[in-house]
Amino acid sequence: MKGFKRKNQIEDAPSDVLPKKERKKRKDKGHGKTVAQTMTPIDNRSFLALIIRSFVSFMVITVLAVVIIVMLAIWASGRDEINLSIRNVANYQNELEDGKFENIPIERTLGDEGWLSIVNDEGIWVYSSDDAVRHYTLSELECIQSYGQNMNITLHSFDLPDGQQNYFLSAFLNDVEYYMLLDQALNVISSNMPFDKDAFTQNEFYLLTYNSQNGGNIIEKLRFTHNGQTFYAVYFDTNNTKGVTPYLFSAIVVIGIVCLLIAVLVLYIRYINKHVQRPLKALGAAMAEFAENGQRSKLNYIGSKEFEQLVDSFNQMVTLLNASEEQRQALEQDRQRMLAGLSHDLKTPITIIQGFSKAIRDGLVSEEDKQKYLNLIITKSENMSTLINEFYEYSKLDHPDFKLSVEDVDVAELVRTYLAGRYDEFEIAGYTLDADITEEQLICKADTPQLNRVFENLTNNFFKYTPKGSTLYIRLKRNEDKIYIMLADNGNGINMSDDDIFAPFVVGEQSRNKQGTGLGLAVCQKIITAHGGTISLSKAPTEGFTTQFDIYLPLADK
Predict the structure, then answer these.
(1) DSSP letters of 321-364?
(2) Residue 353 CB: number of other CB atoms within 10 A?
(3) pLDDT at 67
(4) 3-state secondary structure (DSSP) of residue 222
(5) For residue 328, what pLDDT is reported?
(6) What is the three-state SS of 23-46?
């Protein structure tokens, strides 16, 4: 805006105060002439002058078109009248109610490629003009615009920073503005449209937006009754001609153009002023509101393409700012939760160590109990050391300088080697290990120590939180272009979601006995994610198991 203001100041300044270069420019553009010679009502370089010139050109072309149309009309007036009077499906209500569907002239009514289908009130196909069987769900029928509804829906799409695409639908009906915002999976984010739905299928979305996306072709439905039962006539209308006799057509065009010229001469400037100032004022108000109180409000505007793009850019900026703020708040919450969890898990053993140490120091513990207290102090200190080490490993994965030391690793062989090293531990502790690992070589770009840490944490959790006699089952196989690893057990189960179970310092209440730091699974998720894979807690474990973790790792390119 500063550059625009400076430009106007230079153009309005007296010539004697301008730099030599600017004086030369002004002279070349006619500024050196007399005041009478240079006084023009409109600057030829202004946006308004461009619109007026375009409008004058349009009028000249329109007048020429009128002359041509009149000449064609005179020529056609001596020929036979061509009856192209178009009727729509609603004009054949009697045929519909009598069940005489074949009596409806499809080509004349709906065009060469048009079709008519009759379905009952449950969307089941009854009749089609082109013998195509078309069934509709009740939700799909609801998304088809009814005849005479006049709710013209406009579809906009925009990309979010994470690559997802959202959709924005807007419509006007009875002077009321409606809108609907959907994500890429067609889930409804926000809406005031008369649809009681949380999500749309692809077919429903296609039918809902078809009329605004296909150049005048429309899909509509018409409700009627036949033999006391409700039916719907669903039709595809490709007939865009409203033909009348050539002479009448010419007369209508001439009258319409003349009326248009008269009206536009009066309203054109007001129209331009309105459609330029309205979006600019809305943008200015939104920016001022943001500058004053940080309010990030999106704008809804339908109009000139340039201003729509400007508004879309503003809305995209708002989306990015909102997403950034949400991410910042989420990170702050995670940080506070981690600090609270760490403080809580350190406070208890420190208190116990301090209490028992003071008791021993003050001679309040008998020699018989002293060894027991010392063992407890050692145990608690070891727990603290484990917690600090796990927190260090977790924090290290988040450090900007942390990088995986990857190489080509046969994951199947890595898992076999790991399980072989811990096989005796299962037997000694009273647990069972069952593995189904493919013989196929599955190569992944991986950091071997970090992957081993994942299996170590999951196996340790199995020992901690499942009763003796439980079975740990491990399956590893190829799944298309990924490596699939399943770790399942038949223990007590975990009644938690992915968001909870993989959060730091979260320990299950029902399946766990509140021991542990709650960092093991969080570390697992960070390591798997760093490898380009995913880890999740299955909501429906394989039959015979109560807890199941599913890991997917990308196969290395050959």
Answers:
(1) HHHHHHHHHHHHHHHHHHHHHHHHHHHHHHHHHHHHHHHHHTT-
(2) 19
(3) 73
(4) strand
(5) 78
(6) HHHHHHCCCCCCHHHHCCCCCCCC
The upper half-sphere exposure of residue 267, i.e. CA atoms within 13 Å in the direction of its Cβ, equals 8
**Residue 95 host element (H or E):** helix 93-98
In the predicted model, is pLDDT for residue 491 greater than 80? yes
What's the Cα-to-Cα distance from 406 to each of 304, 443, 444, 451, rounded to whole Å?
53, 12, 9, 10
- Given a cut of 70, whether residue 158 has pLDDT beyond it is yes
Share of the chain above pLDDT 70, in %: 70
Distance CA 450, CA 404 (A): 8
Note whether 253 and 67 are within 8 A (CB).
no
With a CB cutoff of 8 Å and minimum separation 6, the contacts of 296 are: 290, 318, 321, 322, 325
Specify the amino acid at residue 380: K
191 burial via Cβ count (<10 Å: 0-12, 13-18, 19+) = middle
Q: What are phi and psi of 549, to 5 degrees?
A: -105, 130
Distance CA 65, CA 63 (A): 5
As beta bridge partners, residue 437 has: 476
Whole-number pLDDT of residue 35: 41
